[in-house]
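Review form for a predicted model. The reviewer records the input and the model, then writes brief findings.
Reviewer: anonymous (R2)
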Amino acid sequence: MLCVRVDRVVRFGCAGSHNGVLDGDPRYGGPVDRTPLDPEAVRAALTVLPLGRVEVVDAVPSTSTALLEAATADPGAWPDRSVLVADHQQAGRGRAGRTWTTPRGVAVTVSVLLRPAVDRRHLGWVPLLGGLAAARALRDLGAQAMLKWPNDVLLPAATEVPGWGPYRKVAGVLADLRPGPGDPVVVLGVGLNVAQTAGELPVPTATSLAMAGFEAARQDVLVALLARWLEADAAWRAAGGDATAAGLAEEWAAMSVTLGHEVLIDLPGGRTIEGLATGVAEDGSLLVRAGGSTTAVRAGDVRLRHR
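Model under review:
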C-alpha cells in the first residue's frame, strides 16, 4: 500500500459559511485570493508526494489535452503519475465535448497521467475516483462535498435547482484514454472552483469554495487534492482495479447524491431513461432500475428527481 504523508500543514479558513451551505445573499462572494501560483513553490510543495514529473505552467488551453499530447510525443519523459498544473486554463474540456473557462487566479486546474496495470474494464472508475479524491480533500477542509455520477463534485446549497436538487457543482472531472496496445494510458483532469464570485460563475448550477464561505489558497487545495487522489489510486491499483474490493465503491456510494434516488438521464443520441439509480458497476457504469429491469448506463447527463 502506498502511504502518503504531507508534513506541511494545510490550513483552511472559514468565512461566513453555514455548515457549508451557500449564503442566501446572491451577491456574497466570500474572500477572494487571486494570487498567481508560484511554479517553484508548487513544485516544492508537491515533492512530499510520490508523483512522477511535475510541470507548472502559466496558461494552457487544456491541461489534459496538453499532457496527453506531450506524453504521446515523448512517452519516456512522462512517467506514471506525472502532473501538469496550469495557473490559468483557457479552454477547459468537459464531458460530451463541452468547454468552459474561468477567470485567471480562481481555480485549481490539474491533470495527471496514469499508466495503471489493471484490466481495461475497470478504467471507468478513473473519473469516479478523481471525484472521490476531490470530495475527500474538500471534506478535510470542512465542506460537506458530495458526488453526482459520473463526474460532478457538489456542495450543499440553500435552495434547489431543477435537476440538481439542493446542490451546486464545485468541481468536475474528465478522463481521457489514449487508444493503443499494451497497458492503458489515461489522463485524469480536474477543475475545481476556488475563488469565483457569483457573477463569475457560468451557470446557476455552479459554485465555488469562496461562494460557500471557505477561504483557501489554491496551492493548498491542489496539494490536498493530489494527496487524496494518490491514496485512492494506490488502493484501486492494489486491488487490481476492483473498486469494490478496494473499499472505494462503498465510500463513493456513501457520498453519492445519485444512488438511491430517482433520476432522469439524457443519453447520447437524444434518448432518455428514467428510473432508480441502484449502484455502480465494476466498469463505472451507473445501474438504473426501470420497468422491472436494470440498465447499465455508461454515459449520460444525470438529472436528480428529488421529491
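Findings: The chain has two domains: 13-255, 262-304.
Further findings: The mean pLDDT is 87.
Recommendation: see findings above.
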